[in-house]
Write a structure and sequence with these properties.
mainly beta
Length: 291
């Protein structure tokens, strides 16, 4: 198989707060060339790099807000998050866990630091990813998947470390999350000197975020902590070698190649559908959720 080479390595932009509980670096779509079209089906990637929150009796976070037309995926590296939505989904995720919310035809939801964790405070580190839904599925029923770390399929690489397969497939092991289109999402947790090889179709939009440590890509280019790697849409195979104990988030998805019309918390296929989303939200069709 041909090598999938790096197109560009992107440094984190200055951080900003989402609500008062998430201090994030936005990679998708705020950093060139990471547009929604270029990264299809990945719409947004916000990375809360390690940040220390002092203890607080009132949990920090984001209050009630709507979504329609896509899925939100939250991956916890450190800290704990509590989620509630108007479709009845919710729960607490902690270190190593994932929450996968399918907003689809519309939900209200809120996300906060988990109450007991908030009282103590500590290091908080998360990724939130928005995954687009195919046009035919945008008005499907909302759903929610809580994926605890002990439920995530893991591929043992021996002395090299292991790969957690959240969605998609690695070395014949299928991920725990159900998806509406071909999406691969996994954490490579490599020991110093450890190597892992990945294979994805050349047309899949493929990237990696170095969450911990630093890695050598294809034996050539070193990528430091908190940096984002965009791969070319040529070739299928790339290798990661950890220069130190490292954690790398890998994402690769088949482009939907459908119109993308985003407006705030809604992502639809036409402007008319966006207008309908606002009307449905304003008339209470997204349900009710107490703030």
């Amino acid at each position: 198989m041909a090598t999938k080479n790096i197109e560009t390595i992107i440094s984190p932009k200055p951080a900003h707060f989402v609500g008062d509980g998430f201090r994030v670096h936005n990679f998708i779509p705020g950093t060139y060339p990471l547009t929604m079209k270029r990264m299809d089906p990945f719409l947004v990637l916000d990375y809360n790099a390690k940040f220390h929150f002092n203890g607080s009796e009132a949990p920090r976070g984001v209050g009630v807000h709507p979504h329609r037309g896509f899925e939100t995926v939250t991956i916890a590296y450190q800290g704990k998050v509590e989620h509630h939505d108007s479709a009845g989904g919710g729960g607490i995720i902690g270190e190593g866990d994932v929450q996968w919310m399918t907003a689809a035809r519309g939900v209200l939801h809120k996300e906060y630091h988990e109450k007991e964790w908030s009282k103590e405070g500590g290091i908080f580190q998360m990724v939130q990813l928005w995954v687009n839904l195919p046009a035919k599925d945008k008005m499907s029923k909302p759903k929610y998947q809580t994926i605890k770390n002990n439920e995530i399929q893991k591929v043992d690489l021996g002395e090299n470390g292991f790969v957690e397969v959240i969605a998609g497939e690695y070395e014949g092991i299928k991920g725990s999350a159900s998806t509406f289109s071909p999406v691969n999402l996994m954490n490579a947790k490599l020991k110093s000197g450890g190597k892992a090889t990945f294979n994805f179709p050349e047309n899949f939009n493929t990237a990696a975020l170095v969450v911990e440590g630093s890695v050598l890509v294809n034996g050539e280019q070193k990528v430091q902590t908190n940096h984002f790697v965009l791969f070319e849409n040529k070739g299928e195979t790339f290798t990661l070698e950890a220069a130190e104990d490292s954690v790398i988030l890998i994402l690769s998805g088949e482009p939907l190649n459908e119109p993308i019309v985003p407006h705030g918390p809604f992502v639809m296929s036409t402007q008319q559908e966006i207008m309908q989303a606002f009307e449905d939200f304003n008339t209470g069709k997204f349900g009710y959720l107490e703030d």
